[in-house]
Amino acid sequence: MARTGQAGTMNTSIFLCLLIILLTRGSPAACVGDNSSASHSTASTAEKPVLLDNVEDAEAFISGAEVAVIGFFQEPESPEASQFLLTAGRIPEVPFGLSTSPAVLSHYGVEANTVTLFRMVDNQRRDLDMNNNDIDAEKMTRFIRINELRLVTEYTPMTAIGVMQSSFQLHLLLVTDKTSPKFPEQMRRYREAAELFKGKILFILVDINLKSNERTVSFFKLKKSQLPALAIFNAPDEEQDVLTLDEVSIERVQDFCNGFIERMEKGEDEPEEKAPNEEL
Predict the structure, then answer these.
(1) Stretch 149-171: mean pLDDT, rounded?
(2) pTM of the model
(3) Predicted local distance difference test score (pLDDT) of residue 270
(4) Which among 224, 215, 254 is positioned nearest to 19, based on CA atoms?
(5) Are 113 and 130 contacting, i.e. CB atoms less than 8 angstroms apart?
(6) Is 115 within 8 Å of 80 (Cβ atoms)?
(7) For residues 66 and 120, is the Cβ–Cβ distance under 8 A?
(8) How do 239-244 and 229-234 pair as beta strands?
(9) H helices within the chain, ranges in order?
(10) Could you say which DSSP state residue 131 is in?
């Protein structure tokens, strides 16, 4: 096991530029296509969006999933609603709800023809206004894919946008090989650790088999022989740390995160050195 730390060697703009490079070099359309291909094959059997007639049903629907999408429409037969139904068929793994209830729309402070994504990981929501934009199923699918941050978000050219736009300042990356027989157990433990830091740290999975992730792995100066590894980054103060692992455990992840947070807090508590007064 090896551990390296680095502070003040990378500014936030460079980190964001890296993500932008990944987006331009990667294939966002292909990312959506990968998910859509499976979705198209099941679109005919996918359940229709759940009709939400009252506030209680809407709240229960949202709280029952990591990511939930609700379409708020005045007319369920409108062209906008038709595009919403088409989108729901493309993303069967995300629960979709639909409401035309004035009480529900008022409760969530939205107007008709609005698609809203609710996510549990940070209790945030994202609204897509369909009234003033030429929104179709393709754009709606992209909106959902970008914003569907979860307890553990897999890093792809598409989700990189959502990571950049998230309110999280701390990002923890598990860099590993998804084809490894050890991966399912790694993911289970990593996810359980994510529960402990919900709302504080965004947990990210980086699969080394994705070509678009090669730059991310090299950015943290990791080699395949050092994986699995954890990499944590705090955007505001430009600090990062890396920990290579023999195995992924809840305790290792928890200790790594707590240790990084403690060092950050100690750094904030230390008074700044005052420059000596210059004699005139």
Answers:
(1) 91
(2) 0.74
(3) 59
(4) 215
(5) yes
(6) no
(7) yes
(8) antiparallel
(9) 12-25, 28-42, 55-63, 79-90, 102-107, 137-147, 159-165, 183-196, 214-219, 250-269
(10) S
SS3 32: helix
Dihedrals phi, psi of 97, to nearest 5 degrees: -120, 160
- Distance, in Å, from the CA atom of 68 to the CA atom of 96, rounded to the nearest integer, reads 6
Q: Please check the confidence at residue 7 and state whether its pLDDT lies above 50.
A: no
Mean pLDDT of 90-117: 96
* Six token digits for residue 2: 């090896």
132 pLDDT higher than 90: no
State the chain's mean pLDDT as an integer.
Answer: 82
**pLDDT at res. 110:** 95
CA-nearest of 131, 79, 85, 124 to 110 is 131
Q: CB-hemisphere CA count at 13 Å for 18? A: 15
CA distances from 117 to 66, 71, 131, 143, 148 (A): 10, 9, 17, 9, 8
Yes or no: say if 108 and 58 are a contact pair by the CB < 8 Å rule: yes
If we measure between CA atoms, which residue out of 163, 120, 179, 151 comes closest to residue 253?
Answer: 151
Q: Which residues contact 130 (CB under 8 A, 6 or more apart)?
A: 80, 83, 113, 114, 115
Q: Which residues contact 142 (CB under 8 A, 6 or more apart)?
A: 28, 32, 158
Nearest-5° Cα angle at 122, 231 to 37: 75
State phi, psi for 4 to the nearest 5 degrees.
Answer: -135, 150
The predicted-structure confidence for 10-65, as pLDDT tens digits, reads as follows 344 334 444 333 333 333 333 333 333 333 333 333 468 999 999 999 999 999 99
